[in-house]
Amino acid sequence: MKLDMGVLSRACLIDILNKGVTKMATINCHVTVCSHNKSGVCYANCVDIVGSSALEDYDTCCSSFLNKLHYSELTNNTLGPGRCECLKCTVETCTFNNNNLCKLDNIQVSGEKVYYYTQTGCESFELGR
């Protein structure tokens, strides 16, 4: 899957503007080898949690993950000053998914010995639909 972060960022920004979202989720990241991780908080331009038919949290993943082994530190890559404020979620089975946006104030992204984005997961996932 090829991810175009420019298109994703614009889509997220358009969603925010159209829906009047004023408070975005904080993305707490326990994936220490991610280029966007700065002291346990995500600083990616936009985060996309995927796993459309997930039944458990390990069926989800953060497709914005970039391994520090291949990319330098990218903690200044946000749309504005500070942490990531653009969170898309295409996990249709999650209770907290509302029109591809997360209803939670903060989420937990995790993964141990991560080399690829598929080895990450959203610990905040809750099966609902």
Overview of the molecule:
The protein contains one helix and ten strands. The chain is an alpha/beta fold and 129 residues long. The protein has one domain. The strands form four sheets. Strands 1-9-10 form a three-stranded mixed sheet, with no helix packed on it. A three-stranded mixed sheet has the order 5-4-6, with no helix packed on it. Strands 2-3 form a two-stranded antiparallel sheet.
Keyword list:
129 residues; alpha/beta; 3-stranded mixed β-sheet; 10 strands; 12% helix
Number of strands: 10
Cα-atom radius of gyration: 13 Å
* Uncertain parts: 1-5
Q: Assign a percent range to the helix content.
A: 10-25%
| Number of helices in the DSSP assignment | 1
Protein structure class: alpha/beta
Mean pLDDT: 80
* Overall outline: globular
Provide the number of structural domains: 1
Strand arrangement, largest sheet? 1-9-10
The share of residues in extended strands comes to: 15-25%
